[in-house]
Amino acid sequence: MIKVVILGAGNVASHLCKAFEDSKEVSVVQVYNRNKNSLQSFPPEINTTTCLLNIKDADIYIIAIADDAIKPFSKSLPFTNKLVVHTSGSKAMDKLSKTNRKGVFYPLQTFSKSQVVDFSEIPICLEAENKDDLKLLQNLGNSISKNVQLINSEERSKLHLAAVFVNNFVNYLYQVGSDLLLEDSLSFDLLKPLIKETANKIETLNPSKSQTGPAKRNDIKTIENHLHLLKDSPYKNLYQKLTKAIQKKHNN
Amino acid sequence: MIKVVILGAGNVASHLCKAFEDSKEVSVVQVYNRNKNSLQSFPPEINTTTCLLNIKDADIYIIAIADDAIKPFSKSLPFTNKLVVHTSGSKAMDKLSKTNRKGVFYPLQTFSKSQVVDFSEIPICLEAENKDDLKLLQNLGNSISKNVQLINSEERSKLHLAAVFVNNFVNYLYQVGSDLLLEDSLSFDLLKPLIKETANKIETLNPSKSQTGPAKRNDIKTIENHLHLLKDSPYKNLYQKLTKAIQKKHNN
Question: In what order do the strands lie in the sheet with A124-128?
């Protein structure tokens, strides 16, 4: 049984806690958070504390807090030579205090409070300073996912950057689509099957091959018609930018 | 039994043909295409022709060809006063020749040759000049989909514009993500669960509420780190543009 303490009580912390509790190989011996309120969403059988000095003994301490707080928080931990990992995509392992053994346990996924997540498909990106710790993190990762990967800090920051494009920026485009329909009182529901199919296509076709649309086929008439529809829109410039990028990529 | 003739042999034509053949209420009496080769991908039980003068009698003639060819092609049809519809998102119904009764049958989805499509969830956007024709198109739509909508040409062009954002532009961002990973020899597979979850989230959260990431939380350090990673990249400018757009939307 791998004993873990989760440090933090946000989305990543609560989803990880649930996944570990569902696995037979991991025990969440405690969840720490400085603010008591956030701890109330954890199930009652989980031991919680708001006091750093009361943190229990464990095999792995998992910091799941805001990126910028990782460095100072890791320094404030009142123990030494334990395996302490963070869960951030963008922070290097070295941001952790050297008072403990360092590692990273980064689940590459987007987490919302309300959305149930199936961890089994989520890539868990691991890094550690030494082989034994890496082995332990691999066991921890395998307990909840079939997709455990060794990824160093440099690779991980690139992965996080790519994730911003396919998650944050894509979601923004969904919102643009929703906004455009709202102007004509059309329901966003109309776009949902298309959005899902666009995402599902990546399983069988690489995105470069599955590119379609007026920019790809250099359909100037349709592009002009769209720019006319967008003539007073804040999204006109973004349309032009993305159209040019696709034209450049596909028509040289 | 609704008798249809499909005019064209591309992705939309072949997917529609399959969907109609699977339904009990529609019979595809013929598929026309000027080029014989493309007709060979249709099942042998479907009657095909390359000659306009041999087109059979039907209740509905469905033009599924390149947008710009719709207008001249509809003029070249050697019959009058029949119901002729096109399947384009961006062309107005009026682009069809007035020698026949006009209509639109627009399935709002992205079609690839290799990908099997479940029509039952696809919005079918209909338009017709008269009530009887609209009723007939509704019956045709209901034979393959649970989601049949009356959408006029103006609304449809807005819908098509929004579809470009959530399909063509989103797919381009997938390709950017793939490219960025390739630079570090990382597999695009790592991003696939994230891409699917991002698309699935729209069922429970509107895109404005589910926005996350460094731009949304105004995390200047991470944004600067990303811009540093992109310093020689053709995608730097796009990153800046989308980041600013999200910051403006969410942080005023």
Answer: A48-49, A26-32, A2-7, A60-63, A83-86, A101-107, A124-128, A148-150
Question: CB B245 to CB A238 under 8 A?
Answer: yes
The per-residue pLDDT for A57 is: 98
| Minimum distance, in Å, between the CA of residue A57 and any CA atom of chain B | 33
Q: Which tokens in the block code for residue A50?
A: 């708001």
Q: What is the pLDDT of residue B221?
A: 92
**ipTM given for this complex:** 0.95
Give the residue on B whose Cα is nearest the Cα of A223: B161
CA distance linking residue A201 with residue A211, whole number of Å: 10
Distance (Å, whole) CA A137 – CA A62: 11
CA–CA gap between residue A241 and residue B146 (Å, rounded): 36
- CA-to-CA dists, residue B66 to B10, B91, B109, angstroms: 9, 10, 16
Residue B64 above 90 pLDDT?
A: yes
Burial of B138 (0-12, 13-18, 19+ CB in 10 A): middle
Band the pLDDT of A112: cuts 50, 70, 90: confident
Q: How far is B129 from chain A (nearest CA, A)?
A: 21
Q: What is the pTM of this model?
A: 0.94
Q: How many other CB atoms sit within 10 Å of the CB of residue B116?
A: 8
- Put simply, whether B215 touches A (Cβ < 8 Å) is yes
Mean pLDDT over B50-54 rounds to 97
Percent of chain A with pLDDT over 70: 100
Q: Cα(B101)–Cα(B9) distance, rounded to whole angstroms?
A: 22
Beta pairing class for A2-7 and A60-63: parallel
Question: Which domains can be identified in chain A, with CATH numbers?
Answer: 2-151 (3.40.50.720), 156-251 (1.10.1040.20)
User: Looking at the complex, does the CB of residue A169 fall below 8 Å from at least one CB of chain B?
Assistant: yes
Task: Say yes or no: A202 contacts chain B, CB-CB below 8 A.
Answer: yes
DSSP H helices, chain B, are: 11-22, 36-39, 70-76, 131-142, 153-163, 170-183, 192-200, 220-229, 236-251
Q: What is the mean pLDDT of chain B?
A: 96
Q: Which chain A residues touch B126 with a CB distance below 8 Å? A: none
Give pLDDT, residue A44: 94
Radius of gyration of chain B (CA): 22
- Asked if residue B252 has pLDDT above 80, the reply is no
Q: Is A241 on the interface with B (CB under 8 A)?
A: yes
For A133, the token pair is 């710790």
For the stretch A6-30, pLDDT in tens is 999 999 999 999 999 999 999 999 9
CB within 8 Å: A186 and B155: yes
pLDDT of residue A252: 62
